[in-house]
Amino acid sequence: MSRVRPFLLLATRAEDQAADGEYAAMLRASGLDERDLHRVRLEAGPMPRIDLDSYAGIVLGGGPFDSSDPEDSKSTTQRRVESELRSLLDEVVDRDFPFLGACYGVGTLGVHQGGVVDGTYAEPIGAVPVTLTDAGRSDPLLAGLPDTFEAFVGHKEACRDLPPTAVLLASSPACPVQMFRVRTNLYATQFHPELDVDGIVTRIRIYQHYGYYPPETMDEIIDRVQEAVVTVPPLILARFVERYG
């Protein structure tokens, strides 16, 4: 049986294999089916009108867009997507509407709320230890999870200065802002809560020429991530759905 209100996945990946893999990963991690997780691929065309009252919550996926790139280096598509997301976030933040942004979510929500996002704390592709703050340990999406857990990352930008409206929930050794909350119901993670080993291997192959790593090191990176044990992050997506669904 479908839920009374579905969730909405906003996606930005232009490559079909990456986009479909992300959607499948979000379904697995959240426990939702396709009837209950609608998808809009923002890179494919203008954002349709989104009636927040029709949805239980919004998930924003990751992608190759970097919020901190100079404006004149951004594609027309990226500038359009960022403009549309800013307008949507105006309403989402004003209403404290349930929102979970994965990776690109830190860039979009972080910049929207006055944080500084740049390349200072970029992390290479791999599994890193993420440690909860005191606020994280008491947050409804994270309470009861291990204080430190492994999560998959791979990003060229990160939040250098936390937005003044945000509460820091988690950090990693090389990236101080791994997760934060704005108001009561808006979350952003730098790590990917949806990813398992197969998912990250697929992305490593697809994005080998996007500047995340020297292409000749691809096999070495794949060997390394295949040894990782990453089980906790998907629970965060599942809890988001459980809390707001």
What is the fourth-level CATH superfamily?
A: Class I glutamine amidotransferase (GATase) domain
SSE order, one letter for each helix or strand: EHEEHEHEEHEEEEEHHH
Helix content: 25-40%
- Note the beta-strand portion: 25-35%
Spatial ordering of strands, largest sheet: 2-1-3-4-11-10-9-6-7
Secondary-structure content class: alpha/beta
Protein name: Glutamine amidotransferase
Keywords: Glutamine amidotransferase
InterPro entries: ChyE-like, Class_I_gatase-like, GATASE
Organism: Nocardioides panacisoli
How would you describe the overall organization of this protein?
This is Glutamine amidotransferase. Residues 52-195 form the Glutamine amidotransferase domain. It comes from Nocardioides panacisoli. InterPro entries: ChyE-like, Class_I_gatase-like, GATASE. Keywords: Glutamine amidotransferase. The chain has 245 residues and is of the alpha/beta class. The protein has a single domain, classed as Class I glutamine amidotransferase (GATase) domain (Rossmann fold, 3-Layer(aba) Sandwich). Helices cover 32% and strands 25% of the residues. It contains 7 helices and 11 strands. It has helices at 16-30, 76-95, 104-112, 134-138, 197-206, 218-225, 233-244; strands at 7-11, 37-41, 57-60, 99-102, 116-118, 123-132, 148-155, 158-161, 166-172, 175-182, 186-189. The strands form 2 sheets. The protein has a 9-stranded mixed beta sheet, sandwiched between helices. Strand 3, helix 2 (76-95) and strand 4 (99-102) form a beta-alpha-beta unit. The longest helix has 20 residues, at 76-95. The radius of gyration is 17 Å and the shape is globular. The mean pLDDT is 95.
